[in-house]
Amino acid sequence: MAAPYAGLGACRVASAAPSLPVATVSRRKAPTDRMARAMPHESPMSPDPIPSRPSPETVAMIDRLVACPTTSRDSNLDLIHDIRDRLRALGVDRIRLTHDDDRRKANLFATVGPGGSGGLVLSGHTDVVPVEGQPWTHDPFRLLERDGRLYGRGTSDMKSFVAVVLARLPGILDRGLRSPLHLAFSYDEEIGCIGVRRLIADIVAAGVRPTACIVGEPTLMRPVVAHKGKHSWRCRVQGHAMHSAYAPQGVNAVEAACEVVAFLKAMQRRFRDQGPYAQDFDVPHTTVHTGVIRGGTQLNIVPHECVFDFEFRYLPGADPDALFEEVRRYAEEVLLPEMRRVHPAAGFAWETLSSIPGLDAPDGDPVVGLARSLSGLSDTGRVSYGTEAGLFQEVGIPSVICGPGSIEQAHKPDEWVSLEQVARCERFIDDLGVRLAA
Ligand SMILES: [Zn+2]
Fold first, then answer.
1. How high is the pLDDT of residue 150?
2. What are phi and psi of 348, to 5 degrees?
3. Given pLDDT bands bounded at 50, 70 and 90, which one contains residue 6?
4. Cβ(389)–Cβ(228) under 8 Å?
5. What is the pLDDT of residues 121-133, one digit of tens each?
6. Which helix (H) or strand (E) covers residue 122, if one does?
7. Which pLDDT tens digit goes with each residue over 213-260?
8. How far away, in angstroms, is 200 Cα from ligand 1 center?
9. What distance in Å separates the CA atoms of residue 362 and residue 399, rounded to the nearest whole number?
10. Ligand 1: distance of its center to the CA of 407 in Å?
11. Do the beta carbons of residue 224 and residue 379 sit within 8 Å?
12. What is the model's pTM?
């Protein structure tokens, strides 16, 4: 089904919305966010104070991107084609699109500057999480400015970063580049970093060998050098139905599933109480979580099936396969023999739902130094959520995460990013352009 808006016309109408006043430059305000206050910025590369708000071009670009409702389930092609056309108008002709199987979605990879290998990737995803069921107080796909903030779905996660890159690109091109600069905009990040895998496979196959990558997920413009890996599974428990008056002659799939879920909970307590720990992470140990469970039809039937989904978010260096093996062995070596004694068809079926490698950039890596220098921050962070950075790192492209806004605002109703954060990102990208200038 087509996206529920009339293509780019809708985006262009929205970008002319009168709710966004023309920018004025004023003195830099103190960051309002709790995390930002905790991390004072050192002098950024450029000696000029960072303005309290970004340029009107950047705000208009955020407006344009937010107005395209690229929820992961819908097509992102209008947005991708708009970006492609915009890049072409700037004279960028090295653009690669990689589509999903249905050709409803695409990644865009563009290279500007000189040819040859190497170069830096600026990476962002174009999809957003759904708004259904959330108590938004305004239209999530129409940018609203209020009290120094821009509200709208994707403002923090992560259309503002993409918009800053696009809006500042003309200035970077005017200055010229002495090494390639790559733009990587993906689909379906929010449902397991699905799309970017094709983008990465495509550039690897094409022999494009970037030397580093900056992923602009929301970090309050603080360089993040590590994140956890994530591996999620679906378990389908096969039981045997029976009138509940004869429960011992059936195999209760709900009860078997609950025993496995309880085992997972015990693992979670073990990691919490015994580690291993990595104190730099906001949640300093591996976590286990069961998020969905479905089983049974009515009380007087022994349920024949139960399905549940669970995940591990593991510290760099942990082995997700070993964690899974612990669960599988409990189910199949402790529980299953008893179930099979009642009915031979009883069993457990396991399916991987998603697998995102962790990120662990060495502190001395040049891209970490670059992000520190551009952000004006000497410290670096480690976060619990996964990003595409781990996948870039997996193919040998050292990666760091640094983008405007806070993950605390992501995925929530009335999502917002502060104008100060967007202005800070503008400075970051502008100074990067100066660094890369010919
Ligand atoms: Zn994101």
1. 98
2. -120, 130
3. very low
4. no
5. 999 999 999 999 9
6. strand 120-125
7. 999 999 999 999 999 999 999 999 999 999 999 999 999 999 999 999
8. 17
9. 10
10. 8
11. no
12. 0.83
Domains of the chain: 8-26+40-227+358-435 (3.40.630.10), 229-356 (3.30.70.360)
Distance 188 CA to ligand 1 centre (A): 10
Catalytic residue, candidates 189, 360, 420, 430: 189
Among the listed residues 403, 436, 408, 412, the one whose alpha carbon sits nearest the alpha carbon of residue 62: 403
Ligand 1 ion: residues within 5 Å (CB): 157-158, 217
85 part of the active site: no
Among the listed residues 63, 74, 127, 145, the single catalytic one is 127
DSSP string, 182-249: EEEEES--TTTS-HHHHHHHHHHHTT---SEEEE--SSTT--EEEE-EEEEEEEEEE-B-EEGGGGGG
CB atoms within 10 A of CB 86: 16
Q: Which DSSP state fits 49?
A: P
Asked about 33 being catalytic, the answer comes back as no
Instruction: Give 327 Cα–ligand 1 centroid separation in angstroms.
Output: 30
Q: Please tell me the predicted confidence (pLDDT) of residue 115.
A: 82
For residue 244, the CA-to-ligand 1 centroid distance in Å is 47
- Which tens digits make up the pLDDT trace of 158-198? 999 999 999 999 999 999 999 999 999 999 999 889 999 99
User: CB within 8 A of 116, min separation 6: which ones?
Assistant: 179, 180
- CA 280 to centroid of ligand 1, rounded, Å: 21
Q: Please, what is the average pLDDT of the chain?
A: 89
Distance 124 CA to ligand 1 centre (A): 8
Q: What angle do CA 31, 33, 36 make, to 5 degrees?
A: 65
